[in-house]
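Example 3.
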Amino acid sequence: MGFSLFNYWVVILLMMAGFYTVIASGNLVKKIVGLNIFQTSVFIMYISIGKVFGGSVPILAANTDLYSNPLPHVLILTAIVVGVATTSLALSLAIRIREAYGTVEENDILEISRREDDEE
Amino acid sequence: MLCMTALVVVYVRHLFSVVMLFGIYSLLSALIFVVLDAADVAFTEAAVGAGVSTVFMLATLVSTGRQEKAPAHSPLLPLAVVTVTGAALIWGTLDMPHFGDPGNPVHVHVADRYIQESPDEIGIPNMVTSVLASYRGYDTMGEVIVIFTALVGVLSLLGVRERRENPVHRTGERHSRPYPVLQVMALLLIPFILVFALYVQFHGDFGPGGGFQAGVIFAAAIILYTLTFGLDDATALLPVKLICMLAAAGVLLYGGTGVVSMLLGGNYLDYDVLAHDPVHGQHYGILVIELGVGITVSTVMIAIFLALVSRAERPR
Amino acid sequence: MTIGHLPALQVVIPLLAAPVCFLLGRWPRLAWLLASAVAWTTLVIAIGLWLQVREGGTISYAFGGWAPPWGIEYAVDRLNVLVLLIVSGIAAVIFSGSWESVRQEIPESRQALLFTNLLLCLAGLLGITITGDAFNLFVLLEISSLSTYALISLGRDRRALTASFQYLIMGTIGATFILIGVGILYMLTGTLNMADLAHRLGGLQGSRAMHTAYGFLVIGIGLKLAMFPLHLWLPNAYAYAPSVVSAFIAATATKVAVYVMVRYLYTVFGPEFAFSAMYVQWLFIPVGIIAVLFTSIVALFQHDIKRMLAYSSVAQIGYMLVGIGLVNVTGLTGALLHVFNHALMKGALFLALAAICFRIGNPRIENIRGIARQMPWTMAAFVGGGLSLIGVPLTAGFISKWYLILAAVERGWWPVVAVVVIASLIAVIYVWRVVEAAYLHPRPEDAETVAEAPPALLAVTWALVLANVWFGVNPGLVTSLASGAAEALFGGYLP
């Protein structure tokens, strides 16, 4: 059974690499890249779910009647769009933060905010 | 390969390399999608992940700087969180249905109908398009709205400036053509890209493709034009106001199709009622909504790119 | 004919009004009028749905005419009609009163965008509530989340940007966890329709993969509903967002997330699995209790009143978790009532703050000394909302806390009763700090004299305060709806 689940384990490793980048990195842009890797790996998981051994691309063809499952493909098409939407919003926030604080490093921003809070 | 790329991203601090690695990661996963029979998804991932997202990130790096600082706090806590999450997932996989087995519950329940019936019910060979545009058409409308929401969000954050305020600067730029070779190459390429986008738009019923992919490719052509000719020429060609109006029009076209089918006595987004027989109705419905998707996606991508770039060009 | 389409119209109208509102970019006042009119329309539709549900039970609407589970289904029952009513009601009231405040806080070029975002957020929240499809829920969740991030970032302080970014990262992690959970469920059952999922999961009780999916969904939704200790994004987000935005999201967003949690626990996984096999009550009760006590105490030390109310919101979510964790009909009824009532009280309080912000800018305790003499109506409204927050009899807040206490007594869990009482006493203290500053201190000599808030803003604030009193005096309507929903959700299951 080892091999039959191997695919999922690789995907999990990828997910966790992305997830780690999101929560451990101090740079806002790198966090966004991490988020994208995290999401892309989830996409691979979904598409793996839909695969049928010996199946073909789900477009009607004369020489086969075994197709892979089209539904996960549809879901992931939607999820990719959602991903790029989130990314673009996050990137514009990063630009604005850079303009407002002069940095996109989380620690520096925290430092500045703390000083501001103290002043008030 | 994929694992290596992902792990290198964790270590590298030079953000330009990180973004390029992400592009590679995205292309590699597109290859995996091809192997797993997901042609449409591969197409989209290559266009969006390796294309548009990467360009957006690069455009951002221009404003935010390229080097990441060394992290100040210890990586132990995040590492622990990640390990626990990963372990939970692996524990969960142990009794999952096995990869690729045609007898899995996934393949025998809902999906079966899509595969068996959709060529008759919808009348087009690409099952992905059938499910996307008709069976789960409402999700796709949601997806168009998500993209539109991103546009509204980016505009409320950054705004897009119509033209450069400083006329002297503008005339100066008009005369300087800094990259003649690139510009000629781009002019040669762009018509082909546009024709390809149209092909993808209208061929989505038969092969991989559809409004979303076509929209991204169309946007890529305009982005290429902006990169080589500068922001001012691009906004002269396509005024921002027009782009925004088209984005909203695409959403309304999609949503309006639903309203029309409601007025004709069907449920929301029921294309059966659009023509005298259901298969024709489905055909018209899918054509129109794919057009809506294509318009909104391409215009929103262009507008977001212009917004990101216009910030980078603004003198500080 | 229209009656049959109400479930679709509930979401589609605000969804399609958003691009129209966007096109009105040059005429922000028209955009505001459109947004308010649409919000009132959604309230009328929600009332229509409620009447239908009361007579005929669950309504199902199949998008595209494809029967579930092949197509996407909207399913309305007593549980989500309650949430639909409160979300659309709050939206109608807040949108109508928002104009003056928005015009003052937001640059003119962004005003129409703000209303577009508000409409998208409203549509997303209503959609999450009404949908019967697990993946459609994810899509609508992203619509509401993306618009919320944009709304928060419109705040005047630059810290609004970082607050929004932090929320974006945490929210997207949450959404991705939900996506993983839904993916595993789909892998196990082959379906995405919630009712169908529930049916098919019934046969998979011992599956490890199902346990994993459950874990990911609870954590993912927990991030969205600011379940302690995943609440870190919330105080900044509420504190730095534009005033009317704070009022709207504080009153609606987390409530919808609580609804999603209840929907997954009871409808999809079923109380049998959630409570007998997974013991979720042993997660919710301690987490809820710590949230209630800890964040109430943190609220005591805040100088920014918006931030204080934000911490109090995390505490109120703690009450709802405790209500769910008590695992009996009375407890769940209490939690649902608190969803409804908390929306009313936080809506009233944040609107009163919006009125104060309108006149003095920064609502810090030191800045509002003696303001009650200059803005008597606003401060009286704040006191009204505050009394409901504390849970004084004859206000809405009392009813839900009463149910929670009854439920705890039913289980014989006296410490829970003690926690509810102690936390209410803490609430007395932090509300009193504001009241003391506003009423008992003289206005400082150097402070400028301010006038009462604009009438429209004041009117909607008072509408919500009066709603707090009305639902406190006549709780029957809502309690019967909530307890009916709770009974249906338990469906004869006994712990």
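Residues 283-495 of chain C form one domain. The interface with chain A takes residues 135, 138-139, 142, 146, 149-150, 153, 158-159, 161-162, 164-165, 168-169, 172-173, 176, 179-180, 183, 186-187, 192, 303, 364 of chain C (CB under 8 Å).
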